[in-house]
Amino acid sequence: MPTIDYIDIGDVLNSDYLQGEIVTLDASDDTCTVRIGGDILSAIVFYHCESTSALRSNGAIEGGATGFVVGDSVIVHKKKNAESVSDIKVIGHVNGARHCDSGGEGYYVVYKKDGGLSISTCDFLPAAVTVKDTRTALTDLAFLNLDSASYVNTETPVAWFIKKFSHNALTNGVRTKRDLYYIFTSILFSENPFTGWVNFCTANPSHALVTNTLNSEITYSAQLMTDMQTVNYNVNHDHTYTSEPLGHDNWKILGSGEGGDCEDFALTKAQALLDLGYPASALHIECSQIDNPAPGTRAGHAWLVVQTTTGDYALDLNSDSVGLNAALTFGGKELYTRKRQIGTKWAFISPFSPVTSCINAYLYNYFSYIFDPVLNIMHTLDMGNDYHTRPFLTVFADAGLSGDGVEGKRAPSVNFSADNNYIYFENDGYTYKYQLDESVLTLVSRVATVIPADDTHGAKSGFIGRDGTMKIYDEIVKFYFSDDPDDYKNGYLFQADVITPEGYFDNEPWYWTADVPYVPGVQW
Amino acid sequence: MADQHLYYLPDYNVYPVPVTFSTAFHNYSYWKAIEEGENVQWYFNGLGLETLITSTRYPFFWTHIEDKNTRYQAYNILRYGTNSGDNVYRFTRNGVDYIDKIKTALTLASNEDIVGVIQLPMADRLNT
What is the pTM assigned to this prediction? Predict the structure, then answer.
């Protein structure tokens, strides 16, 4: 196991242990940049994900970067007289160890089993696929698989496209370059899985929990724990639990002596902590389904999570003691579909959260999303007049991306600016410009797409470039075979393929050539 | 346009066209022509769907995943139920076939039991 070996006491005294924040990460060589005070320094990641991890030639431990994400608070080992990048090592987390992402994690397989659909969370490792957990799609997860006639179809395939790109996202007040994902899929994710929360937001648009877009931690202290314990106990004992009928869940902050159900207790505790001066950015409602609920009992639960520097704590109406949120159960039953509110958004917390309460649409319905892998929030891109009926992979010479007269609906086109500031999305004749600001995907502008003047195709065709403008290929180009200006063939645009370089989309035209004048059927 | 590459149309008479997934930059994100069929030259050429719509309700199953900086991962499973019973399934990860690994892990009898594969690189927020 690679270790940091001191030569003598002088070497020890020459080392500082500092606290920093990861700014960028490069898993290809396990290097990073880390903010220490006001400085951003290049560093190597010296962190063991496996006891057998090898030492890289640059001094980093292979795979160490998978133990971190941008924004992590980290411990940095730095030589006082640091001369090279290897003298600055990220060696651990300030808030305790974390699982490393081995590269095969985060996979789901949807499959037919026992006449229905099941979904398993899996690790896709080089040697084998390993199953971590399994749930039935319909009954456990409310994952509906549609065709034109049924919500419980077992044939409709799940289409999934995910691509990573870099974006300067506003993160805890600082615009920071980090990884986001573009997702194009047949799955319709619900942005508002809890109607009661939507109604609360509508009724209380200026409430701190609603307007908050930040995700922060309160510095842990004995006073904080005392306040959490006191608020939890008082609310649990000052109010009576009163269930609400299915479909009529009314989320509210309880008045003195008023009764309510679980989310009302959670909101009331949040309000009490807000009144004590704690920030809304660290107070969040969490909701989940309950594993295997007894017949006739409720299947869902809600509670308050307080995010602190020593971990997330749950304030639950079923317990007067405040414990770590990760360990919370419902009478010993797992809470397996946790989603945590940040303002009006809901973040995925449990592994099964993303595939809960969503719909895999029947053929040719597709949806585009931006996924934030730090907060675990799925942001829906504008659907234009409706969903998309085909993938965005090819621009055709005759119909372009419009598909007009072919399928009646356009395929989208998406790209990511070279300066990492914007996400461009072209759909249904409009170009959308987005930017991620904390937990909100901000629509910067929406303008009618400008079709280049040299578009001779007669269609709203094209491909959105990294500058946010529509690109069109010439319909006919000349291909020269020697220096002789007459030694050429005309190339006729056949189609242009969308290709996927790292971090953005590109487009590559296909031509077919023929003698001049063009004779169909002669191919080059 | 001098720097444009000259491409040839595919030869519809040569099937199946071998498909290579690699870590190469500019690798295509989709599946080219797969196999011979009376009306099906291109399963997933962005469009070419008219034939498939009339042929089967569920013509393809498409998954493309790019995971981490140093990897290009492409997965494709195509379902085509009317092609002489010869359904097409491919599922590769960095060029390595995974469909048998999935079937083994989930004790599935048939490729057709697989309906979809999703990858979502989430932060572990229960461990913070």
Answer: 0.78
